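Q: I'm writing up a methods section and want to include an example of the input and output format. Could you take the sequence below and give the corresponding predicted structure tokens, formatted cleanly so I can copy it straight into the document?
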Amino acid sequence: MFWAAVYTAFGLACALSGTPLLSLGGHQGSSALGWAVAAGGALAAPVCGVAARYGLRPILRALLWVLCGLAGMAAFGLLMDMITLMFGQAVESWTSAANHALAAAGMLLLAATARSDHRPSTAAPLRAHSAASGPVQLAACVGTVAFLPYAMMKLVWASGGTFAGVSGKEMRAISERNGASGIWLTLESWGLDATALLAALGVFLLWGLVRPWGQIFPRWTLFLHGRRVPRWLPLTPALIGAATLAPYGVLGVGYLALATAGVVTIRRGDFHSSGDALLVGWIGLAAFAAYGIALVIAARSYWLRTTPVHGDAQ
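A: Here is the clean output for your methods example:
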């Protein structure tokens, strides 16, 4: 309820001041979106209040899950904000970033509220130490392999090579023009690409969700003294990444398919031709789509395997 009050006030402040909550590629959206944010928060407050007073009736639980889904949609872009803040020392719009962060917090709180009357049996075993099923591990393999062309493309540029008609020197100039941070530029001067390193971390997270952490990094077993990794530690970045990369990649691949078929025209951007932009787009967005879907599957598996349940959930 406290989050709902804060989110409502935030939406009203943006709507009344004419501050846009959506920013994409330098284009600002309508400030009317603030009214939608305020309406969502205003609806969540009484729903949570009634649930706290009278218990979670089926209709209240359904409303909470609907609001949770809407908050998840509003949180889209949070991962991109975190990456640009880390390596660019700024975000495209601080108001938009604040909306993403508040919406993500609301998504987690609303989901917790919707499940607040679920009390799993203390006798039920935790299976966090077990590996995921074969199909889940196969999805992790696909998500890993999909990142290889992307990482190779980025490393070619970082090492000074040329790909899709753009040299490493040109790509560095583009990064400087776009306001890349000193950390980003320093990594490129060492022949490393920041996004390729993030991809490696993402793959490590993916396999940590489907394999026991002690097998991924055996020394952790000694560090943790036999204790399991807290489930929220890998689930938090996994849920943020899945909510961002899966829809971004899938929608992007759909757009590229239309561009390849000639239905729409793709802008060349910083590349010398639309064909070069299309090639790079396929490599990047196909990786995000495959990895994002794999992360959704792996996160769901990890969630179920770390929840005390009866039976054989995968």
